[in-house]
Amino acid sequence: MITPPSPVVLILAAGRSTRFIASGGALNKLQTPLCGLTVLDHVIRAAELSGLPWHVVREADGDGMGDSIAAGVRATPNAGGWLILPGDLPLISAMSLRAVAEGLGSALVVVPTWNQQKGHPVGFGVGCFDELVQLSGDRGAARIVEAHRADDQVLMLTLGDRGTVLDVDTLDDLQYVQTLMTTAGK
């Protein structure tokens, strides 16, 4: 029996960090040190620990999340789906990445939630390829999720991982995440 390809974790790292720098951050937020690693390296480490293939999107044709998603999907056309993971979620767990990937076995789109908040990574099956490669601008893939929700092809997956929703957009966010990591001993 042939095993289908695994979904690829697309780590979005092409943003300019304008909100982070405006809040007092000195560097691009993804390159900012956080408990011994950069913010981005924490996300990459979770992807590595998940056992799933992963790809970092560092450049895109435009500045928006949609541009980054399209670039990542184009770079991994033979993937068994895609988990869209912004690079500013340093608390994301490998277990959550695997759970979203497994959810793609029963749904075309998987949206993780924590405490009734939608989070990341959002998983997309291979049937979304054409829609994903056409994305551009800041909106990301929200309209694709909504279109497939109308077709009852979206799984809302409740996870016990605050890391799916806790991103680093400002210096205050970074300090909060650092406090959580220090308290948890990470």
Task: Describe it.
With 186 residues, this protein is of the alpha/beta class. The chain has one domain (8-184): Spore Coat Polysaccharide Biosynthesis Protein SpsA, Chain A. It is built from seven helices and nine strands. The strands form two sheets. Strands 1, 4, 5, 6, 7, 8 and 9 form a seven-stranded mixed β-sheet that branches. It has a two-stranded antiparallel sheet with strand order 2-3. Helix 2 packs across helix 4 (94-103). The radius of gyration is 16 Å and the shape is globular. The model has no long low-confidence stretch (mean pLDDT 94). Residues 47-148 form the MobA-like NTP transferase domain. This is NTP transferase domain-containing protein. GO terms for molecular function: nucleotidyltransferase activity.
Features of the shown structure:
7 helices, MobA-like_NTP_Trfase, nucleotidyltransferase activity, Spore Coat Polysaccharide Biosynthesis Protein SpsA, Chain A, alpha/beta, 186 residues, magnesium
Shape: globular
Q: Which class in CATH terms? A: Alpha Beta
Question: For the CA atoms, what is the radius of gyration?
Answer: 16 Å
CATH topology tier name = Spore Coat Polysaccharide Biosynthesis Protein SpsA, Chain A
**Which ranges are low-confidence, i.e. pLDDT below 50, for 5 or more consecutive residues?**
none
Q: Which class best fits the helix and strand makeup?
A: alpha/beta
Q: Please, how many domains? A: 1
Note the gap between the termini: 40 Å
Helix content: 25-40%
* H/E element sequence: EHEEHEHEHEEEHHEH
Which CATH architecture? Answer: Alpha-Beta Complex
Protein name: NTP transferase domain-containing protein
Domain MobA-like NTP transferase: 47-148
Keywords: Magnesium, Transferase
InterPro entries: MobA-like_NTP_Trfase (IPR025877), Nucleotide-diphossugar_trans (IPR029044)
